[in-house]
Amino acid sequence: MEDRFKSTKKAGLLGIIGNIFLLIIKAFIGIITGSQAMIADSINSASDIFASLMTFIGNKIASEPNDETHNFGHGKAEYIFSLLISLVMILLSVKLLVDSISSLIHSNYFTFSWGLVIVCIITIITKFALYLYTKTVAKKYNNILLEANYKDHRNDCLITVGTLIACLGAIFNIYWLDGIIGTLIAIWILYTGIKIFIESYNVLMDISLDATNNDIILDLIKTYDNIKGVESIYSTPSGYKYIVFITIQVDGNLTTFESHKIADNLEEDLKKLDKISHAIVHVNPV
C-alpha cells in the first residue's frame, strides 16, 4: 500500500514539473505568433498542471489510514479529486471551443515560426515520456487518478501532433487549419473530461461490482462444501477496491462457533481477491 501512494506521489510531482515547463514555452510562442492551436495547447497544459496537482493532493488524502470517523479509510478521495479534474477539463474545453470557432469565423491569421515546430516536438517527447511512466504506475496499482493522468498525457501527444500540423500548414498559407485543429483539441478535451466524470461519479454513487467480479466471488464460495447457498451479495466501493456484504446459508445443525468459523474463513479468502478490501459475511441456518 505504501509503495502505491509513494509511486502516485512521484508521478504527480513529475506531471506538475513537466506541465509547468510546457505551459511556459507554449504560452510564450503562442502569444508571440498568435497561433490559436498553440494557445489552446498551452491552456491544455494549464489544465494538466491542475490535474497533476489534484493527483498529488488526492493521493495524500487517500493514503490516510482508517480512523474512528472513516472506518473504511479515505480511498474515495481519489474519485473526488478525479471528478474535480474532469470538471475543469470540461469547462476549459468549452472556452477553447468558443475561441477556436471564433478564429475560424473571423479568419484569424498567425505568424509562422520554426519556434512553433520546436515547441511541438519538445512537447511530444516530454508528454510521451510522462505517458509511459504514468501508465506503468497506474496499471500496476489500479489508480484512477493516474489513469486520468496517463490518458491526459496520451491525449496531449495526439493534440500536439495536430498543433504541429496546423503550424506547418501556415507554410502553405493554410491558416484556417489552425482554427480547425483548435476546435478538434477542444472536442477531444471535452470527451476525455466527460469520460472521467462518469467513471468518478459512478464510484461516488456507490456503484456495485460488475457481473464478472460477482461470478468470481460465487466461484470462490462454491469451493466451500459446507455452504449450502448464497442469499445475497452487495458491494460498495471504498477507494479503488470494494467492500462486500454477503449472506450465506449453512446447515442449521452446525454450532454457532462452526458456522461463524466458515464465515471467518470466507471473509479472509474474499479479501485476497484484487478488487476487495473488506468482506462481511452473514450466516443464516437452513
Task: Give a short synopsis of this structure.
With 286 residues, the protein is mainly α. It has 8 helices and 3 strands. The protein has 2 domains: 2-204, Up-down Bundle (Alpha-lytic protease prodomain-like); 211-285, Alpha-Beta Plaits.
Describe this entry's structure for a reader.
The protein has 2 domains: 2-204, Cation efflux protein transmembrane domain (Alpha-lytic protease prodomain-like, Up-down Bundle), CATH 1.20.1510; 211-285, Alpha-Beta Plaits, CATH 3.30.70. Helices cover 69% and strands 11% of the residues. The protein has 8 helices and 3 strands. The chain has a 3-stranded mixed sheet, covered by helices on one side. Helix 8 links the parallel strand 2 and strand 3. The protein is elongated, with a radius of gyration of 25 Å. The mean pLDDT is 82.
Largest sheet: 3 strands, mixed
Number of helices: 8
Proportion of β residues?
Answer: 5-15%
Fold-level CATH name of the largest domain? Alpha-lytic protease prodomain-like
What is the level-2 CATH architecture name of the largest domain? Answer: Up-down Bundle
CATH homolog superfamily of the largest domain:
Cation efflux protein transmembrane domain
Number of strands: 3
Q: What series of H and E elements makes up the topology?
A: HHHHHHHEEHE
CATH first level of the largest domain: Mainly Alpha
Spatial sequence of strands, sheet with the most strands: 1-2-3
**Helix content percent band:** 55-70%
Which word captures the global form?
elongated
Query: What low-confidence regions span 5 or more consecutive residues with pLDDT below 50?
Result: none
User: Whole-number radius of gyration?
Assistant: 25 Å
